[in-house]
Amino acid sequence: MEKTLETKFTYTEKQDTRSGFGDGLLEAGRKNPNVVGLCADLIGSLKMGAFQKEFPERFFQVGIAEANMMGLAAGMSINGKIPFTGTFANFSTGRVYDQIRQSIAYSEKNVKICASHAGLTLGEDGATHQILEDLGMMRMLPNMTVINPCDYNQTKAATMAIAEHEGPVYLRFGRPKWPIFTPTDQKFEIGKAWKMIEGTDVTIFATGHLVWEAVVAEAKLREEGISAEVINIHTIKPLDTEAILESVAKTGACVTAEEHQYNGGLGDSVAQTLARNNPSPQEFIGVDDSFGESGKPTDLLEKYGLNADNIVKAAKKAIARK
Amino acid sequence: MEKLSTEQLKKTASQVRRDILRMVHEVQSGHPGASLGCTEFFVALYFNQMNHKSDFSMEGKGEDLFFLSNGHISPVWYSVLARSGYFNTEELKTFRKIDSRLQGHPATEEGLPGIRIASGSLGQGLSVAIGAAQAKKIDGDEGVVYALMGDGEQQEGQIWEAAMYAPHHKVDNLIATIDFNGQQIDGPTDAVMNLQDLKAKWEAFGWEVIDTLKGNDMESVVAGLEYAKTLLGKGKPVLNLLHTEMGYGVDFMVGTHKWHGIAPSDEQLENALGQLEETLGDY
Ligand SMILES: Cc1ncc(C[n+]2csc(CCOP(=O)(O)OP(=O)(O)O)c2C)c(N)n1
Ligand SMILES: [Mg+2]
User: Fold this and answer.
1) Which residue of A has its CA nearest to B159?
2) What number is the average pLDDT over the span B141-151?
3) Predicted confidence (pLDDT) per residue in B97-107, tens digit
4) Which bound ligand lies closest to the C-alpha atom of A91?
C-alpha cells in the first residue's frame, strides 16, 4: 500500500466555500442590522436562503439584472446600509464592471460584492461561467479590497470580517466541496497574510482553492527533502508585501498559485512586489492565457496545470533558478 | 433540408427528449427543464421551418441562422443539431465532459458545427442576432435570422437596448422567440421579478408580436413560426411569445422550476424514458 502523505494541515470534512459565505452572511446579519442582501436569481447557488428567511425585510431579489443590482447596492449604502450582492463571479465583475467602477469603487461605497462559482473548479458549466480574470479586474480598481479565501471556515470568517470593514470589497469563492483544513472560529484579518507552514528553500504563495494544493505540495516536497514555506494570501489587495518580502528574503525563490489567469492576479501582484524590492526567481501556477472548459473540477486542475504536482514541479524549477 | 411532416416532427421530438435526459443524466449536470419545454420549437425550426445547411459554414450566407441566447438549454440544441446531421449523434455522449466540443454552454472555440456564438451569460443573444440580421440586409441576403431567449432573461437590461434598436433600424428579417414558461431559477418569474405585461412591452417597443399559446403542441408551434414568416419584410422585427411548460413530456418534471438545472437519478431517468418512445434510436 502507498504511504499516506503527511500534510501539516488535515481535514475530516469537505464543504463548499459558498456555504461559508452563506453562513457568514447570516451571522453578520444577526450582528449588524445594517447588513442587507441582494441577489440576482441565484439564492440557492449563493446560499443566501438562510439570510433571506431570517431577514426578509433586509433581503432583495433583483431578478436576472446584475447591473441594476450594483446600482441598488451603491444607493442603499449611502444611508449606512451594508449591502452584500450575490451572483456568480463572472456576473459580479465582467458583466457589471463599469457599474462597479463608477458607482462603487470611484464613489467609495461600502458595498460587498460576493462572487461564487469562480475559476475552473466550477466544473461542468464551462468557460462562459468559469471566470479566470476577476481578481485582475477587481484588483485594478482603486479603493477595492480583493479577498479570495481558501476553505469553508476561512470564507465564513472573511464574510463576517468584511461586514465590519468600511469600503468596497470583492469576495471570491466557489462551488466544489473542498477540504476544510483551517480552524473554525478563526479571526480573519484583511490584508494580513497567514504563514501556514515554515520553510527555508522556497516559498509557495497560494490563494483560494489552491491553498489546499499548496499544503499537499509542501508534504510532497518534504518527502524529497525540500523545505517549502506556505503562505496563504487570502487578501490579494491590499497585498501583505511585508510578509512576501520577508519570506522571499529567507527562501530566495517562490511559486505563486491561483485559480486565475497568469495575467492580473496573485502572481502578477507578487511579481510586482519582488521586481520593485528584491527581484527573485518566481514560477507561476495559473491558467496560461486561455479560457477554461467543461469537466470535473479536479480533472480541470490537472489539465490546466493547477494541482499539487504542478506546484511541486514549479517549486523545484524556482529553486534551480536561484 | 427536407421538411418533415407533423407526424415525423413529433417522433423526432420524442427522441430529442430522450437525448436530453440521457445526456444530462450521464454527466449528472446540465439543464433539462427548459430543454424539454423548448423541444417542439427546436424540432419545428430545424426540421421544418429553417432553410439551413447541415454542411456548416460560420458565415451562413444564403441560409437562415439561429442564435440561442439562453445558452443553458444547450442539451436540446445539441440533440437537434446532431439529429439534423451537423455532427454524429455519438458525440452527444461527451456532453459537459473534459475535452468535448459539447460545452456546458454553447461555444465556438472547438468549432462545434451549428454554433456561431458563445452563450450562457444571459441577455446577449438578441443583440447578436440583430447584428447578424443587419449584415444579411447589407448583403441583400434573403435569409431569416431566428433567436431564442428565456422569459427570466427578459430581466436583463441589454434585452431592452436590443428591443429598442431593432424596430428603429427596421430589422424586419428577424424572428425572436421568448420561451414563456413562467419559470426561472429561484421560482416563478412572477414571484422573482414580475415581467408584467410582456406582450404590451414588446409592442410598445415597436415589434410585431404574436402569441403561440400552445408551445408544446407541434401543429401550433409550426403554425406560429409559419405565420411569423408572413410578417417579415414589413419594416418591423417579429417577436414570438411561445407559451411552454418547463419539463414538458415527463410527468414529474413538468411545470416547475425545480428541474431548471438538475439531473435525474438512475430511477428517475428510467421512469422518464418510459414515458418517451424511442423513435430514431438512442445514440
Ligand atoms: C447574466 C447571467 N446571470 C445569471 C445567470 C444564471 N442563470 C442561468 S439560467 C438562469 C435563469 C434563466 O431564466 P429563464 O430565462 O426563464 O430560463 P429558464 O429557467 O426558463 O430555462 C439564471 C439566473 C446567467 N446564466 N447569466
Ligand atoms: Mg423561464
Assistant:
1) A65
2) 98
3) 999 999 999 99
4) 1
Contacts of A62 in chain B (CB under 8 A): 193
Q: Which residues of A make CB contacts under 8 Å with B?
A: 39, 41-45, 61-65, 67-68, 90-91, 95, 123-129, 291, 293-296, 299-300, 303
CA distance B217 to B224: 11
Q: What is the number of the ligand 1 atom nearest to the C-alpha of B246?
A: 20
- List chain A domain ranges: 14-179, 194-320
Number of domains in chain B: 1
Give the CATH class of A14-179.
Answer: alpha beta
User: Which CATH fold would you assign to the domain A194-320?
Assistant: Rossmann fold (3.40.50)
A108 catalytic residue (yes or no)? no
Report the C-alpha gap between B79 and A293 in whole angstroms: 20
Is residue B120 within 6 Å of ligand 1 at its C-beta? yes
Angle subtended by helix axes A266-277 and A241-251, to nearest 10: 70
What spacing in Å lies between the alpha carbon of B187 and ligand 2's midpoint? 9
Q: Per-residue pLDDT tens for A11-54?
A: 999 999 999 999 999 999 999 999 999 999 999 999 999 999 99
Instruction: pLDDT band for B260, please (50, 70, 90 cuts).
Output: very high
Ligand having the closest approach to the CA of A63: 1
Cα(B261)–Cα(A235) distance, integer angstroms: 33
From A2, A66, A198, A224, the catalytic residue: A66
Decide: A286 and A261 in contact? Cβ < 8 Å. yes
Which atom of ligand 1 lies nearest, measured to the CA of A128?
A: 25
pLDDT digits (tens, 9 = 90+) for A132-190: 999 999 999 999 999 999 999 999 999 999 999 999 999 999 999 999 999 998 999 99
pLDDT category at B54 given cuts 50, 70, 90 is: confident
Structural domain harbouring B116: 6-273
Segments in A113-230 forming alpha helices (H): 134-139, 152-163, 210-223
- Using a cut of 0.80, tell me whether the model's pTM lies above it: yes
Domain of B237, CATH number, reads: 3.40.50.970
Q: Tell whether B283 is covered by a domain.
A: no
- Partnered with residue B12 across adjacent β-strands are none
Asked if residue B278 belongs to a domain, the reply is no
Please give the pLDDT value at position A2: 58
| Per-residue pLDDT at A1 exceeds 60 | no
Task: Give residue B11 CA to ligand 2 midpoint distance, Å.
Answer: 25
- The whole-number pLDDT of residue A185 equals 86
* A291: closest chain B residue by CA: B109
Q: How many Å apart are CA A9 and CA A268, to the nearest integer?
A: 27
What does the mean pLDDT of chain A come to? 97
Atom of ligand 1 nearest to the CA of B73: 21
Q: Identify the helix (H) or strand (E) that includes residue B199.
A: helix B198-204
Ligand nearest to C-alpha B261 = 1
Q: What's the B151 CA to ligand 2 centre distance in angstroms?
A: 5
In a domain, B279, yes or no: no
State the pLDDT at residue A4: 87
As a three-state string, the secondary structure of A44-93 is HHHCCHHHHHHCHHHEEECCCCHHHHHHHHHHHHHCCCEEEEEEEHHHHC
Is B280 inside a domain boundary?
no
Residue of B nearest to A302 (CA): B98
